[in-house]
Design goal:
0% strand; 197 residues; mainly alpha; 78% helix
Length: 197
């Protein structure tokens, strides 16, 4: 992939995370554009697992545009914080399925850690569409994994990018938690989405 294009995609991805933290629907437009570019690049480079994730992310992003629009019409249902057990189980199941699929079909010997990161990103994307705070926890775990990998690999460029994502995801987590607390404070107790599920 061209170096300039890589830089532009990275900037767009950081902007996507920042806009998501702000609750701005433009996050999904950025996600769709970068997703289309990455789908093409991963497919032509024969990175089919990454291509599959980008297709999934692209579909989720299109849904995110409409779901966030609908949520914006009902402020009391904007932010939720679901039970973290279900995302955890989903991550384990997806990581295991990815590892088995890769080993038996693609034969690319994908490390189990990469499968876990793939699963975390997949679950985080779904949760972000729902505006679930657990999405930010998944992103934070991913970034926390990427940073030591960058240090061990001596890739300071990747370390810098991961640090940017970590800072932005931390901002998103704090912003969403503050908004969720405001929703709880203003709720009359009748709306189940205004309390932690």
């Amino acid at each position: 992939m061209d170096a300039i294009l890589t830089i532009l995609i990275t900037i767009a991805q950081i902007a996507t995370v920042y806009l998501a933290a702000r609750g701005n629907r433009w996050t999904w437009i950025f996600s769709i554009v970068t997703g289309l570019i990455l789908c093409y690049n991963f497919f032509t480079d024969h990175h089919y697992m990454s291509f599959a994730f980008q297709v999934y992310s692209l579909i989720a992003s299109i849904g995110g545009v409409f779901i966030w629009k609908k949520k914006a019409e009902d402020n009391r249902r904007t932010i939720c914080w679901g039970n973290p057990l279900w995302p955890l189980l989903a991550v384990v199941a997806i990581a295991a399925a990815t590892y088995i699929l890769d080993a038996r079909v693609l034969h690319s010997n994908l490390p189990i850690l990469d499968c876990a990161i793939f699963a975390l990103q997949a679950v985080a994307t779904y949760l972000m569409v729902r505006k679930d705070i657990n999405a930010w926890i998944c992103y934070l775990i991913c970034d926390a994994i990427y940073i030591p990998l960058g240090i061990m690999g001596g890739s300071y460029k990747w370390l810098f990018i991961s640090a940017c994502f970590l800072i932005t995801a931390t901002y998103g987590f704090i912003t969403f938690v503050k908004a969720w607390r405001r929703i709880r404070a203003n709720a009359d107790g009748a709306d189940p989405s205004a309390t932690k599920q």
